[in-house]
């Protein structure tokens, strides 16, 4: 999937309670995603976002569900899954993707999807929002979460 075509979102998240749930595998890339998300939230005027770490991307949906059910206006989910030599990759990606979708639909709380699903570490680093990266998927997920809160308020 190409990052070309991503919208330039300018969002105002002031007054929003945002929870960032972040997995812990692939430390360098994860810190890049988390840094990008927090920079984007600060730029959008979000005060004191809560950050909760979970072990792996498989655990993101249950943490997102708890946050969404406990009054968050939006959740930003961050993780990095890198393909290995077994089908494990597919199961973790599927669980994270469908689980986070279910959280958003069941709770009607937007979930920004910042889970990288990559063939190798180079692909992940390119999307991590680090110096030298070409994309900042953590920031994009945070901006998308805020933008969706604002969109739902119009309905
Ligand atoms: C087990 C596992 C593997 C092999 N790879 C990753 C990965 O690339 N990224 C990630 O976020 N988590 C991985 N995990 C851990 C699972 O997400 C989960 O934490 C464990 O299976 C324990 O439930």
UniProtKB/TrEMBL annotation:
This is 6,7-dimethyl-8-ribityllumazine synthase. Keywords: Riboflavin biosynthesis, Transferase. (2S)-2-hydroxy-3-oxobutyl phosphate binds at residues 85-86, 127. Gene3D superfamilies: Lumazine/riboflavin synthase (3.40.50.960). Catalyzes the formation of 6,7-dimethyl-8-ribityllumazine by condensation of 5-amino-6-(D-ribitylamino)uracil with 3,4-dihydroxy-2-butanone 4-phosphate. This is the penultimate step in the biosynthesis of riboflavin. Pfam families: DMRL_synthase. CDD domains: Lumazine_synthase-I. It catalyses: (2S)-2-hydroxy-3-oxobutyl phosphate + 5-amino-6-(D-ribitylamino)uracil = 6,7-dimethyl-8-(1-D-ribityl)lumazine + phosphate + 2 H2O + H(+). It comes from Propionibacterium freudenreichii. GO terms for biological process: riboflavin biosynthetic process. Its EC number is 2.5.1.78. 5-amino-6-(D-ribitylamino)uracil binds at residues 25, 57-59, 80-82, 113. Signal peptide: none annotated. Belongs to the DMRL synthase family. One of its GO terms (molecular function) is 6,7-dimethyl-8-ribityllumazine synthase activity. It comes from the Bacteria. The keyword Transferase applies. One of its GO terms (cellular component) is cytosol. The active site is at 88 (proton donor).
